[in-house]
């Protein structure tokens, strides 16, 4: 692509670094911004920069947060004895969107996957064991994608938590095996949480 | 969509203002940026803001430019006696990408379209007449999309330029009637410029 303006070329290249944005789409976005008020474009740049600069990760659950403790963990009406373990913050958002879950979360930051070089030590597992040990958690819901890696992670966590008096459940298999949790529709996801199963029945199956 | 972070919610909303970017895509982009180095995200914001703040429009051809006069108009090896009239800067880029055209441009900034309330006075037509009158232009290539609005604009321009000793041509009809110039492949576009026709043969047809 040939540009007669370095300003535009640089902006197109920046947009084209984003996933799923090719050069043609990047150009379309840049030409759109060119028609906007400079103050609006400045706001766009500032909001995006501030988001990355100021974002924190909750000291309790590792969810993204504007404060040291996220708005879910600090909400007095959420059930702190019920913890939903998820792979990433997209899963938190997917479950929050169902508006059916009143517990809290624990974001692992990934899933055990030897092929990708992700072992338990790369994930937020110690802090989960700490929470169970120290905070009177009654139930852990394993809301991991129903894949081999998800099952491996559930198995590993259940061994780590075996010594504690905590009930471990898994979300109901409303989601097809191999399906991605975050792409499930809200109805399926809400139902699979309310129909959650004790871990034993899951492992036997 | 429910967010536990206002920082993320604001950034998603900003991305979702862009054309063709829905909330889901916006979230995907934001979560990608969240994984990038803050300095890289800051650069993204700065490059986009600077682009909008510092962009100029060439005083001769109305193309986007980093200077008062664009890099095409100020290039001594470009043929200043040959001017290609286009609707917008995307068309300039499309033709430049063919690397087959050595003249200069005149960006109208739109096309005559009474339905959309765009009349000749909204377009860069006076400055085109000025250029023809004062700068010894020998040939004007009408490179407008082959639509009714394109034809109307060509007809209007040809009347305005009738009194001057300038040859008016149109790009060859390699592009299907109703087709958008900017989406034509480079081969078709390059060929339709090199096979351009005198206006008379176009109007008769
Ligand atoms: Zn939290
Ligand atoms: Zn110019």
TrEMBL record, chains A, B:
It comes from the Bacteria. A zinc finger (C4-type) spans 58-73. GO terms for molecular function: DNA binding; zinc ion binding. Gene3D superfamilies: 3.30.60.80, 3.40.1360.10, 6.10.250.240, RecR Domain 1 (1.10.8.420). Residues 81-176 form the Toprim domain. Keywords: DNA damage, DNA recombination, DNA repair, Metal-binding, Zinc, Zinc-finger. GO terms for biological process: DNA recombination; DNA repair. Belongs to the RecR family. May play a role in DNA repair. It seems to be involved in an RecBC-independent recombinational process of DNA repair. It may act with RecF and RecO. This is Recombination protein RecR. It comes from Chitinophaga ginsengisoli.
């Amino acid at each position: 692509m040939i540009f007669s303006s370095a300003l535009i070329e640089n902006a197109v290249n920046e947009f084209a670094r984003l996933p799923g944005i090719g050069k043609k789409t990047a150009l379309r976005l840049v030409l759109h911004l060119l028609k906007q008020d400079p103050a609006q474009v400045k706001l766009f740049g500032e909001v995006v920069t501030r988001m990355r600069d100021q974002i924190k990760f909750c000291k309790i659950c590792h969810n993204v947060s504007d404060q040291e403790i996220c708005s879910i963990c600090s909400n007095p009406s959420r059930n702190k004895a019920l913890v939903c373990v998820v792979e990433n913050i997209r899963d938190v958002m997917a479950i929050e969107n169902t508006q059916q879950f009143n517990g809290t979360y624990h974001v692992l930051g990934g899933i055990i996957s030897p092929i990708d070089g992700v072992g338990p030590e790369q994930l937020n597992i110690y802090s989960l064991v700490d929470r169970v040990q120290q905070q009177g958690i009654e139930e852990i819901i394993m809301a991991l994608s129903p894949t081999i890696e998800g099952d491996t992670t559930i198995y590993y966590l259940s061994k780590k938590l075996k010594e504690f008096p905590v009930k471990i459940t898994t979300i109901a298999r409303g989601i097809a095996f191999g399906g991605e949790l975050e792409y499930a529709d809200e109805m399926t996801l809400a139902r699979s949480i309310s129909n959650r199963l004790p871990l034993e029945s899951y492992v036997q199956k």
